Amino acid sequence: MPLEDHPQLCLAKYMFQNPPKFHVRSTFAVLLVVLPLLLVVVLLSPPSISSTADHRPLRRTEIWRSRRVIDWRPCDWWTVGDPKDLPPPKESNGYIRVDCYGGLNQMRRDFCDGVGIARLLNATLVLPKFEAAAYWNESSGFSDVFDVDYFIERTRGFVDVVRELPEEISSREPFKVDCSKRKGHFDYVESVLPYLLEHHYISITPAMSQRRDRYPSYAKTVLCEACYNALRLSRSLEDKANELLNAIPKPFLSLHLRFEPDMVAYSQCEYAGLSPASVASIEAARVDRKPWTGDAARAWRKRGKCPLTPNETAFILQALVIPTNTNIYLAAGDGLMEIEGLTSIYTNVHTKSTLISGEDLDGMHGNTKAALDYYVSIHSDAYVATYFGNMDKMVSAMRALKGMYKTLFLSRRAFAESTSKGMEGEELEEEMWRVHREDFVMGKGSALPDCFCEFKL
Question: What GO molecular function annotations does the UniProt record carry, in alphabetical order (predicted)?
């Protein structure tokens, strides 16, 4: 509003330009009128767009010092009340076995889904079959990793679980229902219940995309309760995990770094400057997954499809002002390539092989090694992942369950987009810090499935 359109300010201007001949007491009275008016002008004036303070880059501090405004916490609809108060299962429609494939946390995810499906269909749950041989070259089963007695006790009363099938059922193979490729509006009641009623014993591979919005609340609650409260490592495996945890210097950051030959081969990405040994390992793992080239390769990388190298990971960690003397536990599988790119900068890196005797480690399968990484990661002071796979989703959920929010997923997309624009050095560091600070503060990148809700601080 122009000055001449504001009567009170016009009065103040007039009084300054035409001061009356007042005594001291009168002058003091005038000031009592004028000064508040001047204060109003100052407060209502918009800040100058040329202010240098508005354009100064924010001072970079360690990422964990940023104040979060959003957390993910278990939703009230499954944490409030006692699961034992849920409606009891009706008469069983038959038996369901969950066939689980892939790595440990993928199998865990599928089994959690299977618990909810069994309750949804009023089925009796048979302990799962871990189809791990092709992935891990091993034969470890559910009871080798998880505490079966504890699981059955924690789920008693809201889903029926059996160790073994009745004799008349156990002599035959289940009718297989593979839902893993189903997408879109997939519904188990419509698509799977008829097979259960017909055959009375089925095995399922859960769908990647499910209509859980159609689940009754008790089925969703059972899934969450079973996955996050009823599943724990077997006693012997938890003892070994605690031994490993106690051996790591404190405080420490758990880093889930994915740069194995099969991971890089699957990504169909190429990297410059790798050692001949790494190149050979990747080529051996490619099979028919040829790398992208030209514009397609650049577009693929900008979409964040290429795993971060250990050197790129170290660069981003430095950009996030994580000190180079930080104790880091490397949660990674066998065959990690180019690790010197990390350890040449972060010198306090610890692995299972440096903390566990070789004899103990040699006797462990892939699933049990992965279970150790999982256990250490959910108890670490901070957790950083270069990927957002099944382990990372489960670890972030368990850490949120425990109220541990120093969890961050490095953005491959942001790194690729920034470097494609020619950013490097200090400019790239500033950009990485800005992007990841925003993610950490706003809870982006750590959205948790189904059982967790966004909570504004």
Answer: glycosyltransferase activity
